[in-house]
């Protein structure tokens, strides 16, 4: 476990760029004072922001870059134009070169994944990388993957994700043997597509020491926290994630409207304002911000492009935890313990 | 438009059977007094319940059945054992025989779909039936399909669903030209799997008179009500639906807990009790209960198995509306206007 955690930051990513990234890093460093940052971006913008943050004193090295990947660049275009020189590429390269333990970017997801694959390479034994997030549940949090790295899946890919997601859950939740569920349209054996049915059969058979296969889970098990790790294909996972975010917003709208409709409701809202504040904090998506790229030869964290400094800090926290508790080694060890899965 | 609407009911379906089905029918009939019911089930149980409901007086014919499909029967098993004699089969058969304009069952979804396909047959021009639901949004409601009839899709199937979902939206929302979106992981043209990309290309090209193709929508557009009809593959649609239901429950749990934690919050909740009641009613899944089977030669509605009488009544309302406004004719007309879609 490295005592110091060195995090490289793409300062130019996201809707707000350095004005969010630098204060976000400062907030995270207050929680983890052993962190240092290597910040890639336009020095003329970044340096004054860093100088204005006493919490970052002595903990930052700025590397000037002149090219930034745009939020709407196609991944292929971003790679062609930004390879080797963009702030995003250089933040990833720092991980490859051993100058940083993890990279964080709020930039274009597709570009970040494409560059990470080219620069860091996929881990031996992993077919395709995945993006994992922390999903808030009534019991705490679960790891959910894939929420958008890939489209389409097969049984082996689902099992790889079960292994990688469990490695992340062991670190984040400090669990010896996290429980793993496959997201499906029902819990009976015959339900679902071929990929989940085959993956379920294999997971029941192999019975690994590092996680416990629970069985199928459904969409409503996500918020319940039925299992520690939920595995699904990226198309469905991304839609489930955004559906949950949308539903939370929708209910927030209903609640605000209900609480302002009558005088009595307004008085009630006044008495309950502390309670509403706690609720708002609980439902704040910034708290759980950060997608962990799993399956690469290095740690890369994606922050939401629209997050504020608090949200970016949550993504930096995640990078810190993954690096400090050596996610890479945990995944490698778990992969070594997984028998080769020949398709039936 | 038929003046009288005749609905056949499977009294033995769902977790509560006739004790929910009969009062549910009574509640719906109060709203639509022109409705009559043909109820299939155990006469010894059904008859006293009907006799106890003044709102059903003179509007019910009971047909005794001795076999009920179990909630956990496999569809193939249910068909083998229940064909021709179960209350579920007979309710569907009544539609086929012209004795009823629509059938409603709270029974086993897989069995209900399998029996409906065998008994009623799939419509000419439709590859596979779908299940559509009404999704509550901040703007009202949207039609969302498929929420669980099929697994996997292709471009033609998605376009069939766009046509059928629009027919349903025309009736339920009384719209001339509903807007239709394809559920995807992003709104850019290059996003998604081959099926949605190809369907999008075709929908942009054909430009039908009866609905307006909006483009891709994402998971968070569901609660926003961005479009009147959201089309997706059944695996993803089912998971999105259950994820939204789960998220709503989760937030309800947070809210209850926040409102009971301190004295001040409790006082606030007391003042706001009317507002909370309105909110609870708004979030009540029973209000939007009922899955419409689209693409069959007849109208079949699935009620949630765990619904109470109010929920079952909502499903009966849906059956009433679909029959009264002639869903079958609307779908047929719209299919006739859709050029044959040869894959590119």
TrEMBL record, chains A, B:
The record's keywords, sorted A to Z, are: Acyltransferase, Cytoplasm, Lipid biosynthesis, Lipid metabolism, Phospholipid biosynthesis, Phospholipid metabolism, Transferase
| Assigned EC number | 2.3.1.274
The record ties this protein, via Pfam families, to: FA_synthesis
* Subcellular location(s) of the protein: Cytoplasm
Listed InterPro entries? FA_synthesis, Phospholipid_synth_PlsX-like
GO MF assignments:
acyltransferase activity
Question: Which reaction(s) are listed as its catalytic activity?
Answer: a fatty acyl-[ACP] + phosphate = an acyl phosphate + holo-[ACP]
UniProt cross-references to SUPFAM superfamilies, sorted A to Z = Isocitrate/Isopropylmalate dehydrogenase-like
* Pathway stated in the Swiss-Prot or TrEMBL entry: Lipid metabolism; phospholipid metabolism
Does this entry carry the keyword Ribonucleoprotein?
Answer: no
Organism superkingdom: Bacteria
Family membership noted in the UniProt record: Belongs to the PlsX family.
Fill in the subunit field for this protein.
Answer: Homodimer. Probably interacts with PlsY.
Alphabetized HAMAP family for the sequence: PlsX
Outline what the protein does.
Catalyzes the reversible formation of acyl-phosphate (acyl-PO(4)) from acyl-[acyl-carrier-protein] (acyl-ACP). This enzyme utilizes acyl-ACP as fatty acyl donor, but not acyl-CoA.
Q: What is this protein called?
A: Phosphate acyltransferase
